[in-house]
Specification:
single chain; TIM Barrel; 5-stranded parallel β-sheet; 3-stranded parallel β-sheet; 8 strands
Length: 329
């Protein structure tokens, strides 16, 4: 059984340098986790060490994407330059080893029209398979009309947009997650729970703003079993009616959303996701290099899950390959 991971991160020296030059006041709280220590070192590596880690956990293909905090909050000129440079590096990596690597483009959403043009180049020229987005750009949420050219490009190309968690704004971190030792407050605001609320809210904003009514074929991917959206779907259903959307909220979730585990090996979450959206809307991911499953046990989790062979293969590779086969290049 082929096993494809859809959220498998990397970084480049140029991006690290751009992050390091930011004033610490504006530096994302996730900067250190992606830039320092053994994790930072291994995110830079795109060769044999990474392939060895894939073999150890049972992953056949990594769909590579630039790690958080990505490009959206860098100075606009830096972000525009880095989106092209990063995607060129990514495309070269895929060309050199298409058996093991595919890619989602990095986008400089501080200039949405440029980001839309880069998405078209990344797919039609470089051969990448969509893009990884990171929610807010500065203080502007992803549903803002200024970003709609990116959604239009994605729909035209039939490529998915993976919506990755992002650190909450400083005021939110201060009010909700501060007051503990720095490492606890940072974890609380990010991988503990803050990231996941933030990403789920961004998806719900897309629904409530009418993005999927304007772009009905747009496909969004959420990691971490849907960033809490699936678990509170019945609670938030009424919001779509109040916002005047064309369809009930549950239909957008079933028609416009894919979810992955992002390395969270939970049979309970798997069962809940299947109940809410079905196996045809679940894809696999190990969240390299931030979850244990990216180094061990990924294949075992899926092989031992209580699934029939058709469902198991759909999640492992079939759903992603179906999406990828429909891309307009």
């Amino acid at each position: 059984m082929k096993l494809i991971g859809l959220e498998e991160h990397f970084v480049t020296p140029a991006v690290l340098d751009a992050w390091s030059r930011l004033d610490p006041v504006h530096r994302d709280v996730a900067f250190a986790a992606s830039a320092e220590g053994e994790t930072g070192r291994r995110l830079l590596e795109l060769g044999e060490e990474r392939r060895s880690a894939m073999a150890a956990t049972g992953l056949d293909v990594q769909v590579l994407s630039l790690t958080t905090p990505a490009l959206q909050n860098l100075p606009a000129a830096d972000a525009r330059h880095l989106q092209e440079a990063t995607n060129d590096v990514l495309a070269e990596t895929v060309r050199n080893d298409p058996e093991h690597f595919q890619g989602l483009a990095a986008l400089a959403t501080s200039t949405p029209e440029t980001a839309a043009d880069e998405l078209r180049r990344a797919v039609t020229v470089l051969g990448l398979d969509g893009a990884m987005l990171y929610g807010r750009t500065g203080a502007t949420n992803l549903d803002d009309h200024s970003f709609w050219p990116v959604f239009e490009a994605a729909q035209d190309l039939c490529v998915p947009l993976h919506l990755h968690p992002q650190s909450p704004p400083p005021a939110v971190r201060e009010h909700y997650y501060a007051g503990f030792p720095p490492e606890i407050s940072a974890g609380f605001a990010t991988h503990g729970i803050g990231w996941h609320y933030d990403a789920g809210v961004q998806f719900l904003r897309l629904v409530l703003r009418g993005v999927f009514d304007q772009f009905p074929d747009l496909q969004i991917v959420l990691g971490h079993w849907g960033e809490l959206v699936l678990f509170y779907l019945e609670r938030v259903q009424h919001l779509a009616s109040s916002a005047g959307t064309a369809r009930p909220l549950a239909e957008y979730v079933r028609d416009n959303l894919y979810v992955t585990p992002s390395g969270i090996r939970s049979r309970r979450y798997l069962a809940w996701a299947i109940e809410v959206i079905g196996t045809e809307r679940i894809m696999f991911a190990t969240d390299y290099l931030f979850e244990a499953s990216s180094l061990s046990g990924a294949r075992a989790f899926l092989e031992q899950a209580p699934l029939d062979d058709t469902a198991r293969e759909s999640i492992a590779f079939g759903n992603w390959e179906r999406v990828r086969a429909g891309i307009r290049r």
